Amino acid sequence: MGSPLGPLLADIFMSKLENTHLKKIIDNFGFYKRYVDDTFIIANNEENLENILDFFNSCHPAIQFTLEKESNATISFLDVQLARREQDGTLKRSIHRKPTWNGQLISFHSWVPIYTKRNLIRSLTHRIHNICSPETIEEELKTLKRILLENGYPERFITKAMKPKTQKPSMLTAPKKLLYLNLQFNGDSSAEILRNRLCRSLKKTFFAAELRLTFSTKPMIRTNVKDKLPLGASSMCIYQFTCSCGARYVGRTQRLLSKRISEHLPSWFYKGERRSPRHSSILEHLIESGHQANPQNNFSVIYTIRGNLAKRVRIKLLQTAEAMAIHILNPELCIQKKFVQSLNLQWS
């Protein structure tokens, strides 16, 4: 089910089985319902369950069903807990929570808009009224309130959000044009002020429009599950060379950085040979000073151009970024360098 197409394909596959191999046996069940690949069956007696499971598993080699029987007249299906009443055998419904669930919801102190927290309470309250039997609603609402309090929600905020909304009398009006706008979330107070100002301005200029304003948040701590690229595997980047004496050089490369470094530090340099350097102020400096260098200790990437841009745009940005880096860092070994990209900056 990792793919977005997973539930749809599972639904199609099960529908095909139900209309072919399983059709005859399904017609004999007292009750049969399915949601995607979860099936709820009421059989005539418990002895038939194993035979039913074997028949289901024999329909297709690519799918295998598992069986969960009721325990103490109780069984769960999706997020619904079903229990048989002793008086008449009818089913009583309540919310099912997995044993591994720790009660954690969006904390009230999380950096998310206030309406997200309010809508969380409303959606969970609606689920209780929509799923539970009348005699279990009050107990489930108490449980929900306790969980919300444990997640830092004020009691007054919970009570207000859990109140059912009164339905306003409908009026026949022309449908409004929905305008969607997503902005960066910078706190509840600024979000509400911005929302009110935008809505008032829109009503004055375009009464037939209705603004739907949403806010997105960025994670406070970013995770990086992808391994960091080796230094030489970078390309389309600005790199810096720092000698042991402090002299620096800034350059750019569209190719792999390892290729460019090998031009600055050719193999004969490591062998102790001394030749005339070709177009490399780094190599010229090392030969004149007698200093040593290696790629891992003396080279670093200071900027990389994103790969989702057109190549001509990336090249232009690379040239500009190199000129700006040289202008800001003023590296000693780049004094004689002729820039491909000239800068016309206010601070020049």
Compute the separation of the termini in Å.
57 Å
Which structural class fits the helix and strand makeup?
alpha+beta
Assign an overall shape. Answer: elongated
Portion of residues within helices: 25-40%
Strand order across the largest sheet: 3-4-5
Overall pLDDT? 83
Tell me the fraction of residues in β-strands, as a range. Answer: 15-25%
Counting DSSP H or I runs of 4 or more residues, the number of helices is 12
Biggest β-sheet: count, sense, barrel? 3 strands, antiparallel
Count of distinct structural domains? 4
Please tally the β strands and state the result: 10
- The SSE order reads HHEEHEEEHHHEHEEEHHHHEH
Radius of gyration from the alpha-carbon trace, in angstroms: 34 Å
Which ranges are low-confidence, i.e. pLDDT below 50, for 5 or more consecutive residues? Answer: 344-348
Task: Detail the topology: elements first, then pairings.
Blueprint: H1 6-19, H2 23-26, E1 31-35, E2 38-42, H3 48-57, E3 74-77, E4 80-84, E5 91-95, H4 114-131, H5 134-150, H6 155-162, E6 177-184, H7 188-205, E7 209-216, E8 237-242, E9 248-253, H8 257-264, H9 267-270, H10 281-289, H11 295-298, E10 299-304, H12 311-329
Parallel strand pairs: 6-7
Antiparallel strand pairs: 1-2, 3-4, 4-5, 8-9, 8-10
Helix pairs in contact: 4-5, 4-6
Protein name: Reverse transcriptase domain-containing protein
Domain Reverse transcriptase: 1-106
Pfam families: HTH_animal
